[in-house]
Automatic annotation (TrEMBL):
<dbReference type="InterPro" id="IPR036390">
    <property type="entry name" value="WH_DNA-bd_sf"/>
</dbReference>
<dbReference type="InterPro" id="IPR051081">
    <property type="entry name" value="HTH_MetalResp_TranReg"/>
</dbReference>
<keyword id="KW-0238">DNA-binding</keyword>
<dbReference type="GO" id="GO:0046685">
    <property type="term" value="P:response to arsenic-containing substance"/>
</dbReference>
<dbReference type="InterPro" id="IPR036388">
    <property type="entry name" value="WH-like_DNA-bd_sf"/>
</dbReference>
<keyword id="KW-0059">Arsenical resistance</keyword>
<keyword id="KW-0804">Transcription</keyword>
<protein>
    <submittedName>
        <fullName>Metalloregulator ArsR/SmtB family transcription factor</fullName>
    </submittedName>
</protein>
<dbReference type="GO" id="GO:0003677">
    <property type="term" value="F:DNA binding"/>
</dbReference>
<dbReference type="InterPro" id="IPR001845">
    <property type="entry name" value="HTH_ArsR_DNA-bd_dom"/>
</dbReference>
<keyword id="KW-0805">Transcription regulation</keyword>
<dbReference type="GO" id="GO:0003700">
    <property type="term" value="F:DNA-binding transcription factor activity"/>
</dbReference>
<dbReference type="InterPro" id="IPR011991">
    <property type="entry name" value="ArsR-like_HTH"/>
</dbReference>
<feature type="domain" description="HTH arsR-type">
    <location>
        <begin position="1"/>
        <end position="89"/>
    </location>
</feature>
<dbReference type="Pfam" id="PF01022">
    <property type="entry name" value="HTH_5"/>
</dbReference>
Length: 112
């Protein structure tokens, strides 16, 4: 993966937040990302498809939902950029992280 491809894939707020949340805690299912990002299923799925095409995430179907994680083949330098950014982005991720906390996360998929 080239740095240009990597950073182009990060240029959208939804894709960036999704990747940073996956860096924090993986795997996450589409319903959990919908909750965290306060977005509809089609929008979250479209952005995840773009991240898959970029080679940044991979998904695993479990029943009705697909669970995503950072791609196992992600280069170390790219993983480090995401980890450093997630650590330094408390304000940027404050609301999505809060939405994933507690009971809301536990019931996210059962409500969808």
């Amino acid at each position: 993966m080239s740095p240009l491809t990597f950073f182009k894939c990060l240029s959208d707020e939804t894709r960036l937040k999704s990747l940073l949340l996956l860096t924090d805690r993986q795997p996450l299912c589409v319903c959990e990302l919908m909750l965290a990002l306060d977005l509809s299923q089609p929008k979250v799925s479209r952005h995840l498809a773009e991240l898959r095409e970029c080679g940044l995430v991979e998904g695993e179907r479990r029943g009705r939902w697909v669970y995503y994680r950072l791609h196992v083949g992600l280069p170390d330098w790219a993983r480090k950029v995401l980890e450093d950014t997630a650590r330094a982005s408390a304000d940027f991720l404050l609301e999505p992280r809060a939405r994933l906390a507690g009971e809301a996360r536990a019931t996210a998929c059962s409500a969808s």
